[in-house]
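Hi R.,

Here's the chain you asked about this morning:
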Amino acid sequence: MVVVRWYLRYGLPYRDVEELLAERGIDSGSRDLYRWVQRFTPLLIDAARPRRHVPG
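And here is the predicted structure, written out as tokens:
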């Protein structure tokens, strides 16, 4: 999720995110990152959406 957040928040290309992961010892390809972005972006959007609270 952190990787997807980096990609969405900072507009980093997949290759740069891949390098950041490699620095942390995680070996993944740009295809993996693409799949993660496709899968987890809707979850992050839902989590960031403000909730309506019903008074009373």
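One quick note: The chain has one domain: 2-48.

Cheers,
M.
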